[in-house]
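ok new one. same drill as before - C-alpha cells go in, u give me an amino acid for every spot. 63 of them this time. try not to just spam alanines like last time pls lmao
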C-alpha cells in the first residue's frame, strides 16, 4: 500500500506551517496534526489506528 511519506516519518517542518497562530504549544499541535492526518488516511483506506501503526512500522523497517 502506498502511504504518503509525510505520514510515515514525522517532519516538524512539514506540519508547523499548519499550526494555528493562537496555539500555546505549537510543537505539540504540529504532532497532533500529523496524527490526525494519519487517522484520516487510515480511515479512508479502511484501517484503524492499530492497523496503520503496524503498516507504518513495516514500511519503516521495524517489523
Amino acid at each position: 500500500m502506498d502511504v504518503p511519506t509525510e505520514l510515515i516519518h514525522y517532519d516538524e517542518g512539514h506540519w508547523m506551517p499548519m499550526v494555528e497562530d493562537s496555539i500555546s504549544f505549537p510543537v505539540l499541535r504540529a504532532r497532533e496534526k500529523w496524527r490526525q492526518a494519519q487517522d484520516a488516511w487510515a480511515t479512508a483506506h479502511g484501517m484503524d489506528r492499530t492497523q496503520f501503526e503496524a503498516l507504518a512500522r513495516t514500511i519503516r523497517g521495524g517489523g
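The helical segments are 5-8, 12-15, 26-44, 49-60. and btw The chain has a mean pLDDT of 96.
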